[in-house]
Amino acid sequence: MTSTHGTRSTAETDPGDVELHARNVEFDLTEAPLHWIPDSPVSSNMITTLNLLLPEGERWFVETFNEALPMIKDEKLAADVRGFVGQEAMHAEAHDKAVQTWLTKRDIDASGYQAQMEWIFRRVIGPRDGQTPRDRQKHLIERLWLIAAIEHYTALLGDFALNCTWAEHGADPNMMDMFVWHGAEEVEHRSVAHEVAAYFGDSPLRRGRAMALALPFLVILLVRGFRHINRQDPTFAELRLPAEIYKYVHDYFVESRAGVFPKISSLALATATYFKPGFHPSDIGDTAQAVAFLATSPGARRAG
Q1: What pTM was computed for the model?
Q2: One matching Pfam family, short form (predicted)?
Q3: Which of 33, 74, 149, 157 meets the CB 3.0–4.6 Å disulfide criterion with 210?
Q4: What's the Cα-to-Cα distance from 229 to each of 119, 133, 162, rounded to whole Å?
Q5: Residue range 5-54, pLDDT digits in tens
Q6: CA-CA distance, 300 to 27, in Å (whole number)?
Q7: 107 in Cβ contact with 232 (< 8 Å)
Q8: DSSP string, 220-243
């Protein structure tokens, strides 16, 4: 798979409205090394953390949207929700398989972190029993806006995956394909969560509250997963403070400048755009580029 870095589609190739649907995929990660981006162990392990975080998070997305779907009377939006749900369910399945068939064979035991994710997404921020209909509706709207805020970052990361330099740096082609496939679908459906949340009730307060929770929530969970992997990775397991922090910071700057990891400054700037008047997720990424990749993804073609 060649890199799409620097090859964004032009407006002339804009496919217009795209019917969202789940794609069957199959990724053979048998030969992928733990550090699947050569000479980039920090970026490899941080991106690999998504394999641990995403399955439960995306099942939570699916559960929440299925709860909202019967209340959506706009047929176009309801169809987009069904497509979104199908794609997110497939994402969870693909990353689950990566943990079971790849990380385990690399001597990484993810069970402790996975148990934490189950508790957080099923118990802490999942549906609540014993609520009045009014409180249940309010809690649903809060969850929808939290998902919209999280999807802001998945769209940004999806756009990064489509335009980064993994291929130029010799990344494992199958692992790269899995993450770029996922990223392309995040760009493809980037507007759905925002439009669903706005359908149930838009307000600057709801947006701000959701983003104020989403950003630290994601950072904490990603850092916990990253440390969980690193404690079992011989490259990092013997490191102690302050040498450990020095390596993380040093490697982050080297690898982000090389284009294999998103620059935190760019993500911070993109966070601010969420509050810009007239903001819409369609401003992020390029649908034509995402659809073009999805039509050629080896993992999607392999599954037929």
Answers
A1: 0.92
A2: Metal_hydrol
A3: 149
A4: 19, 42, 25
A5: 444 544 445 666 788 999 999 999 999 999 999 999 999 999 999 999 99
A6: 8
A7: yes
A8: HHHHHHHHHHHTTSHHHHT--TTH
Tell me, what's the pLDDT at 276?
Answer: 86
Q: What is the reported pLDDT for 6? A: 44
Q: How far is CA 278 from CA 93, 198, 204, 238, in A?
A: 35, 13, 12, 49
Task: Supply 60's token pair.
Answer: 């939570």
Residues of the chain falling short of pLDDT 50: 1-7, 9-12
Nearest to 263 by CA among 177, 181, 160, 167: 160
Q: Collapsing DSSP states into helix, strand and coil, what is residue 184? A: helix
How many other CB atoms are there within 10 angstroms of residue 223's CB atom?
13
Give CA angle at 223 (6, 158), nearest 5°: 25
Distance CA 84, CA 82 (A): 5
Return d(Cα 55, Cα 73) in angstroms, integer: 29
DSSP code for 99? I
Contact 179, 102 (CB under 8 A): no
The residues near 61 (Cβ < 8 Å, ≥ 6 apart) are 84, 85, 88, 147, 193
Residue type, 70: P
Sign of the dihedral defined by the CA atoms of residues 187, 152, 34, 51, in that order? negative
Q: Which of 161, 170, 177 is nearest to 29 (CA)?
A: 177
Determine the residue type at 106. R
Q: Is 206 in contact with 142 (CB distance < 8 Å)? A: yes
